[in-house]
TrEMBL record:
The chain crosses the membrane at residues 9-28. It comes from Acrasis kona. InterPro entries: AB_hydrolase_fold. This is 1 TM domain-containing transmembrane protein. Keywords: Membrane, Transmembrane, Transmembrane helix. PANTHER family: SECRETION-REGULATING GUANINE NUCLEOTIDE EXCHANGE FACTOR.
Length: 394
């Protein structure tokens, strides 16, 4: 009996160890692939998302999304602190026709927020001043930017209230390590914001970022130590922060201003300007690209990605895609859902509306087609990279 028990335990233990080894090699392989290449090369993270999906399922049970939405100095903020050992605070910047609360209500955004919270990163989403267009002020270095002037003092107030313990004579900072993630207009704004605040790493989705903000060389390379954020910092150029490590994510069917080739061109320019500044800046100027491919729609696709969608609805959605000929044999959308009549038929089906909003379904279709949409693709890898940038911070 004892031997039998021992044997069973040993087998389980062995399987567990094997699983751990497998996980570590997967993570390590990806990390080293990014690190191993010289800074002259553009680094592209391809899909390793089957693994990410099983991780997503696991943390869906574990991480509850319970944001606090409030106005601070007349600026709307939506935020949630991590329950894990806190490593930093991530600023979330929406795209046009959205607002900060969507980071906690739409499916892709919720998936991103969950992964960040799981990794010990708290989140704060701002809403742009222009709530008609929902876009951010694009005024860059040397100009006055209304959204910078709102976001920086609000963030300062927020940190003073939430993080008084972080302020010491040593740090002289009232915020924990800061990160920024923006999509589209929010991606451009994220690159501008990253010159106005001490950002550890900047994530720019489906956007080239703002050229001037990404390519203007800093006057001083010393990391700043400041006791307060200057809302007019960008206007003079004197004390702007260096370009932080930046990750770009593009989508394969995004053929216009945020295409792979346009973003690749910007990345080459950042690398060239970093090389000019010297090899020691390697870390500070790390730049990485991620590609979001088309995603196959399967029976459980909608259920697995969107909270509140039942198995039945997910299957029905899939069958409608098949019978109406919206997807090919591999489950890939045949046409751009933004312009196809197919998606209009799908979106008209009121059955789905009980479980998923039209906006959420449109988002999911755009992600499946990989055309200009905020996406949670690669978010696990991106978060790992963000934390790596924190550890190697000069
Ligand atoms: C899921 O359903 C519950 C109950 O109807 C609702 O309160 C919640 O807001 C829904 N969640 C999402 C993300 O739509």
């Amino acid at each position: 009996m004892a031997a039998h028990k021992y044997h069973k335990f040993g087998l389980k233990g062995l399987l567990f160890v094997l699983l751990l080894i497998l996980m570590f090699t997967m993570i390590f392989k990806n990390v080293t692939r990014h690190q191993g290449k010289s800074q002259k090369e553009v680094k592209v993270g391809k899909n390793m998302d089957r693994w990410q999906e099983s991780f997503m399922k696991q943390i869906r049970q574990e991480i509850e999304i319970t944001p606090i939405i409030e106005n601070m100095e007349r600026v709307q903020i939506s935020w949630q602190r991590t329950k894990k050992a806190e490593k930093g605070l991530v600023i979330l910047l929406h795209g046009c026709s959205h607002d900060g609360t969507h980071w906690f209500s739409l499916p892709e955004e919720r998936r991103i927020v969950r992964v960040l919270l799981h990794h010990g990163l708290s989140v704060i989403a701002f809403t742009s001043q222009d709530t008609n267009s929902g876009c951010w002020d694009g005024s860059s270095i040397g100009q006055s930017n209304r959204d910078i002037q709102r976001v920086t003092p609000t963030l300062q107030k927020f940190c003073e209230r939430e993080y008084s313990e972080y302020y010491t004579q040593e740090t002289l900072s009232m915020c924990p390590p800061l990160f920024s993630i923006g999509a589209s207009s929010g991606g451009s704004f994220s690159s501008i914001l990253s010159r106005a605040l001490p950002i550890v790493a900047n994530i720019v989705q489906i956007s080239t970022g703002d050229y001037k903000a990404l390519l203007t060389e800093p006057k001083s390379l010393k990391p700043q130590r400041v006791s307060s954020f200057d809302p007019k910092i960008l206007e003079s150029e004197e004390n702007i922060y260096p370009v932080p490590p930046t990750a770009f994510l593009y989508m394969v069917n995004d053929h216009n201003w945020a295409s792979e080739s346009v973003i690749g061109h910007v990345v080459q320019k950042i690398i060239a300007s970093a090389n000019k500044l010297g090899p020691n800046l390697h870390r500070q100027n790390a730049v990485i690209m991620f590609e979001a491919a088309m995603l196959p729609i399967t029976k459980m696709w909608l259920k697995d990605r969107v909270d509140n969608v039942s198995k039945e609805t997910s299957e029905q959605f899939y069958h409608e895609c098949v019978t109406e000929g919206f997807i090919d044999g591999d489950g890939l959308l045949k046409e751009d859902p933004r312009s196809s009549t197919a998606s209009r038929v799908l979106l008209r089906n009121a059955i789905y509306e009980k479980e998923i909003s039209r906006g959420a379904l449109e988002e999911q279709l755009n992600v499946a087609y990989a055309h200009h949409e905020l996406t949670s693709e690669h978010i696990y890898q991106i978060t790992t990279w963000m934390l790596e940038m924190l550890e190697s911070k000069p």
